[in-house]
Amino acid sequence: MEPSTRLWLPPLALAGCVRGVMLRDTRGRALPAEQRDNYFPATPLVSLFWWAEGRSEWLATPGFSQPPAAPVHVPVLFAGPFTLPSHTRNPGEISAFKLLMLPDAFTALTGVALDRHVNQIHDALAVLPPDWQGWAAQMSAAPDDAARLTLLQDFLVPRWQALGTHRPGHRYAAWTEALAVRAATSAAGRSLRQLERRIKAWAGLPMRELRAVSRAESAFYAVAAAEGDGGVNWAEIAAGHDYADQSHLCRETRRLTGFSPEDLRRRIATEEAFWAYRLWRD
């Protein structure tokens, strides 16, 4: 029996705030050890994890993010933006709920500065403001994922709408460009250094890193489309998605995912551990 893995996409009322929720349930599936690994790419997103059952161990894998010094087996876990991919393993069965938020939205809603949390994970209750702590505890106590999704919307929608924030498109490229425009049209200073400082304060990462992720996502979807259209030409993918050349595509793909483009494509198609990539591709 296949694991239950779902992607919940937010309603329009949360566009520009929530990127999605990844739901993973392996209970009753009797997965062998190699299928309990999880590979995740580098990401500018902020994550909040709730474990209904089970836990995850961070693996020390060359080229991937290092295991955190702080304990990760807490009811609610907070993860800041990551500039390296991550490799984890579930010792046993799990039921997990992972909320993914755009970093500037998270900062606007919580006041938490993300530049101190890049490549870091913490007990969420030590990071979140008091009203969010109460909500996080309610989410932990919810009986199932449906109840958690209702609590999520009831809590976030009014707060996000109260900000009256511009809502960019769903893909990273649209969000990155909207962030750059907002930084450039801010009432504060507009020098290049001030713009970069503002973007890093809002998103935790510099613009060059956000553009790298945007390129990678665009190429990711182009590869998926090419597979259904007869095959992948890596030189064409590179040329069509803002890479200097194929070597540039290979270097950035390996930095952001831990694998070469072709190896990643093959593993997504054949290995259970790459379920997170398939969730967004499919």
The sequence of SSEs as H and E is: EEEEEEEEHEHHHHHHHHH
Percent of residues in helices comes to 40-55%
Q: Within the largest sheet, what's the order of strands?
A: 1-2-8-4-6-9
Low-pLDDT residue spans: none
Biggest sheet layout: 6 strands, antiparallel
Can you give the mean pLDDT? 91
- Radius of gyration (Å): 19 Å
The overall strand count is: 9
What is the percentage of strand-forming residues? 15-25%
Shape: globular
Describe the structure in your own words.
This protein is an alpha+beta fold and 282 residues long. The protein is built from ten helices and nine strands. It has helices at residues 103-110, 130-141, 145-163, 172-184, 192-203, 207-227, 234-240, 246-257, 261-270, 275-281, and strands spanning 4-8, 18-25, 37-40, 46-53, 57-58, 76-79, 86-89, 95-101, 121-123. Helix 2 (130-141) packs antiparallel against helix 3 and helix 4 crosses helix 5 (192-203). The model has no long low-confidence stretch (mean pLDDT 91).
